[in-house]
Description:
By secondary structure, the chain is an alpha+beta fold. The protein has one domain: Aminopeptidase (3-Layer(aba) Sandwich), CATH 3.40.630.30. Helix content is about 30%, strand content about 35%. It has a seven-stranded mixed β-sheet with strand order 1-2-3-4-5-7-6, with helices on both faces. A hairpin with a 2-residue loop joins strand 6 and strand 7 (about 150-160). Helix 1 (about 10-25) packs across helix 2 (about 35-50). It is globular. The chain starts with a strand and ends with a strand.
Amino acid sequence: MIIRAVAFEDAAAINALYNPFILETPATFETAPIDLEARRRWIESRLANPRHPAFVAEGEGRLFGFANAAPFDARQAYETSIKVSVFVAPDAQGKGVGAQLYEALFAAVSAADVHRAYAGIVAPNPASVALHQRFGFRHVSTLDEVGRKFGRYYSVMWFEKRF
Length: 163
């Protein structure tokens, strides 16, 4: 398995990995699959700003996962704060893929004038909490029943990493 920066050629593979999370789980609050053109625009935005990179884990002819940073908020005063996420294929979870992706992501953003990273984790998700704590995140708040998906309300735990 190799960890590398995202490329435009990864768009379909990222969607194949991520869209089932949208359609089948509460792990993301998106509710409609991402189309190929939208994913290409997403990749373009990740390549355009060193504060917002994305990395993929690939091997054996497939994508095992991806991690990315995004703006915390579009308003200028938030520019040194980012949101991060990592998604790993279900059959590759628990094998260190997420940790390797985050190692690459945090190495990149630590050189890009990032002050804080935030991760929103839909509760409960003890594996994701453990991964984020491993990288120095601490729980700072929980928004109770903030999102509704599949006819049910979910809470989101927010974690913060200081650089």
